[in-house]
UniProtKB/TrEMBL annotation:
Extent of the signal sequence: none
Keywords: Aminotransferase, DNA-binding, Pyridoxal phosphate, Transcription, Transcription regulation, Transferase
Organism: Methyloversatilis universalis (strain ATCC BAA-1314 / DSM 25237 / JCM 13912 / CCUG 52030 / FAM5)
Protein's name in the database: Aminotransferase
CDD domains found in the cross-reference section: AAT_like (cd00609), WHTH_GntR (cd07377)
Upper lineage: Bacteria, Pseudomonadati, Pseudomonadota, Betaproteobacteria, Nitrosomonadales
GO molecular function, one term: DNA binding
Source species, domain of life: Bacteria
């Protein structure tokens, strides 16, 4: 056995024995040389061998890490197959019942919709807010009425430019988070009784907004990795009087699916042929696990039909509740809706975020956040593979912080939700994400929180409860 093979085998045994866990960082080449008395070439060869075996992965500018996919690899779920009928909505009471049950901070938050607060630069944001409040002038309360603080809108427009999209600051309306933006977009292009198309499964907040506005929905099949199915969407548009599409193209909640570039271009062409607006809920695009972000749909928007909704809540400042919509041809209508709906978004918070963005620390924070999420995903995947019963399927995401699982047999995740909550564990059961309450044996888990012993114990207990249902 050569020296590099010996080092590779010793490292592989440490991984197999659990000394090195999925997501752990291996010693750097220099550290490994010093610890083992080897040359850099020998260590590099050993790491290359481990990488070829699928045990470790190299991350640019970060080093080598133990990979998640150890042991048995879970297959991904099949494409969803919702009924093609349109649905009147009665989901809010059901969703609120589940959400209200997970507010206890002592509960392990696998069902949470938010990442851990310690992942965000809250102290620095607090200092920006205090400084902004001291500098504010009385006229700011007027100049920052909709569409919002001019400097913040300019800085958001610059980030679009970095993604290849030319968005005018005048087309950006600052809102109370993405949820208000989604409501305003729907109000701008629909009336009560109208029909919108959504993915299946879909984020429950979009269903709640549609219900509040008296809209009906038709659910479009989606692939757990590649998102909304275009052939199925075309059939829906041919068969139903759809007024708008409400989709998450990047790291959809709950599946983590990301629509490929070619499919995204085809989607835009399809919407142009039918002259339909797209309301894109895109709050997770900054949380890509690879080096490159997904293609920005606004870069493909030739005639302003995309209402691109995003927010700082998921990637920077969850408590600030500052979102926006790049509204294209609908900017004037949404601006008027905003004035009549909530008048303005808190001025001091807009100033504070503008100050933070100008300090050039945002991209550094995002790199740190993405690395933390990748590590936490790795650990959760390994624990699910180790403790969930045979027959479990998993949609492994390329961004965001959600893991979508199909559980075996007749597992009822509504019953699992109640049993887990009684043991101090929250989950998000699949029926939350369907107007027709489908996906009864699916569950969404959150990996936006640290890999603690409490989290690991919670996954072990979930695996036990699932096995008992089978």
């Amino acid at each position: 056995m050569t020296l590099y093979e010996d080092l590779a085998d010793r490292t592989a045994r440490q991984i197999a024995d659990g000394v090195l866990r999925p997501g752990d960082r291996l010693p750097s080449v220099r550290q490994a040389c010093q610890a083992n008395g080897l040359s850099p070439i020998t260590v590099t060869q050993a790491y290359a061998l481990l990488e070829s075996r699928g045990l470790i992965e190299a991350r640019p500018r970060s080093g080598y890490f133990v990979r998640a996919r150890l042991g048995r690899a879970l297959p991904e779920p099949a494409m969803s197959a919702p009924g093609r009928r349109s649905s009147a909505l009665q989901v809010s009471d059901f969703i609120f019942e589940i959400l209200d049950s997970v507010r206890d901070p002592a509960v392990v938050p696998l069902g949470s919709s938010f990442p851990a607060p310690e992942l965000f630069p809250l102290d620095r944001l607090g200092r920006c807010l205090a400084a902004a409040a001291r500098r504010m002038k009385p006229q700011d309360t007027l100049t920052d009425l909709p569409p919002g603080h001019p400097e913040l809108r300019r800085l958001i427009a610059l980030r679009y430019l970095g993604q290849g999209a030319r968005v005018s600051p005048d087309d950006i309306i600052v809102t109370h988070g993405a949820m208000e933006a989604l409501n305003l977009c729907l109000q701008a292009v629909t009336r009560p009784g109208d029909l919108i198309a959504v993915e299946s499964p879909t984020f429950y907040a979009g269903l709640q907004a549609a219900e509040r506005l008296g809209l009906k929905v038709v659910e479009v099949p989606s692939h757990p990795r590649e998102g909304v199915n275009l052939a199925a969407l075309e059939q829906v548009l041919d068969a139903h009087p759809v007024r708008a599409c409400l989709f998450m193209l990047n790291y959809a909640n709950p599946t983590g699916a990301c629509v490929p570039d070619d499919s995204r271009r085809a989607l835009m062409a399809l919407l142009e042929r039918h002259d339909l607006p797209l309301i894109e809920d895109d709050v997770y695009a900054e949380l890509h696990h690879g080096e490159q972000p997904p293609l920005c749909s606004k870069a493909l928007d030739r005639d302003g039909r995309v209402m691109h909704v995003s927010s700082f809540s998921k990637c920077l400042a969850p408590g600030f509740r500052i979102g926006w919509v790049a509204a294209g041809r609908y900017a004037d209508a949404i601006r008027r809706q905003k004035l009549s709906f909530s008048l303005a978004t808190p001025v001091a918070l807009q100033h504070a975020l503008a100050d933070y963005l100008k300090q050039a620390g945002y991209d550094r924070h995002l790199r740190t956040l993405r690395a933390a999420l990748r590590t936490q995903l790795t650990a959760l995947v390994a624990d699910v593979e180790a403790h969930f019963p045979a027959g479990t399927r998993m949609a492994e995401p390329e961004g965001g912080y959600f893991l979508w699982l199909e559980l075996p047999g007749d597992c009822d995740t509504l019953a699992l939700h109640r049993e887990a909550l009684a043991r101090g564990i929250s989950i998000a059961p699949g029926p939350m994400f369907s107007a027709q309450r489908e996906f009864r044996n699916f569950v969404r888990l959150n990996f936006g929180h640290p890999d603690t012993e409490a989290r690991r114990a919670a996954v072990r207990e979930l695996g036990r409860l699932i096995a008992l249902q089978g």
